[in-house]
Amino acid sequence: MHDAPLYPVSLVVQHRPCLVVGGGPVAVRKVDGLLACGAHVTVVAPDIAPAIADRSGRSSGSEEPGAGTLSIRRRPYRRGEAARYRLVVTATGIPSVDQAVAEDAEAAGVWVNCADDAANCSFLLPAVHRDGPVTVAVSTGGASPALASWIRTRVGAAVGSHLDALAAVLDDARTTLRDRGGSTESVDWRSVLDGPLPELVRAGRLEEARAIVCAAMLKASPPSPPR
Predict the structure, then answer these.
(1) Fewer CB within 10 Å: N-end or C-end of the chain?
(2) Which secondary structure element, helix H or strand E, spans residue 210, and what is its range?
(3) Which domain holds residue 49?
(4) Residues 6+ apart with CB under 8 A from 187
(5) Are 71 and 134 members of one domain?
(6) pTM
(7) Considering the domain boundaries, does residue 226 fall inside one?
(8) What region, left, alpha or beta, does residue 15 occupy, with left being phi > 0 and alpha being psi -120 to 50 degrees?
């Protein structure tokens, strides 16, 4: 576990080269996570699990334009190659190999995650709940991945499965406001979200939801009087 607080970020890995060292069950999860975010993933390991091999040379299976791609190198890790990537995950389960990868990445200024070894990580992977563009991430600073997953599951159940539609309504409103030359900071979004808006979206009553957002926008930035 890290002593200092972690600085939470959401990394854009789409179209960026990422390395996963290891070909076992843990590596499978790391590969899938990167592919889902559109990364160009290279896996290096002498032995590759079928779940990884089946994905080689094609997209992650998603039809979305941002789906990542995967290539495989069936060989041991070579010292120094971590420097060629933007982000590295090592999950071989062999301490000497994982440490070598972490050292190479750190020396090259590349962000690295060493599975089950927080001391050799420059970033930690949180437990994640996704709903469209909305991502809820939970981290315990390496203290307990199980606790992070437990919290993630309960947060996901509490917020429900309508966040993608809710985000779309708010994104459309903010875009309209910017196009009109207004500031998105002028709207009291928290009050809007504390009102009936989320339940309207959950119920599929999107026109009513949009009307509430439009009213809040007009209240914050009333139209200029005619000249």
Answers:
(1) C
(2) helix 206-220
(3) 17-125
(4) 173, 177, 216, 217, 220, 221
(5) no
(6) 0.81
(7) no
(8) left
